[in-house]
Amino acid sequence: MLFNERMALKIRLEQLNNVEVKIFQEIRKEREEITNRLRELDAMEKNLQGDWPVEAYSPNEAANAVDSEKRILGRREEVSEMRKVAVSILKAQNEPIRGVDLQRQIEAVTSRKIANMTTFMKALMKEEPHVQKLGRGLYIYDYED
Description:
Layout: H1 5-49, H2 54-57, H3 59-92, E1 97-98, H4 99-110, H5 117-127, E2 131-135, E3 138-141
Antiparallel strand pairs: 1-3, 2-3
Helix pairs in contact: 3-4
Protein name: Competence protein ComK
Keywords: Coiled coil
Coiled coil: 24-51
């Protein structure tokens, strides 16, 4: 059997996968060691000073939690706005509209990008039962339900 470039590439890919697994294991092990040591230090501090406040351990975590909550709520509001625009566009159409065309119109109105139109429309159809998928990529607002 000849040793060709394809086999060499497959072997190298397997070697890279093995190295990657080892590196991840080392990182996981180091992370566990650091976490355990921090727990030990926290326990020692708690014994010496009484109750140890969590914020003193990592002051940015509380701020980060608030920021991430704002980001989540902000994203939900954006998606909600995009869904309202989608429904209004579908209501304005008297005939089925292609998903790609609908996506372009929504993105033009909201100035926001839809990463996955299928997922977006599935969520919209759950929220708004009048929005229906007729066929492959065709959507319509059905008034007769």
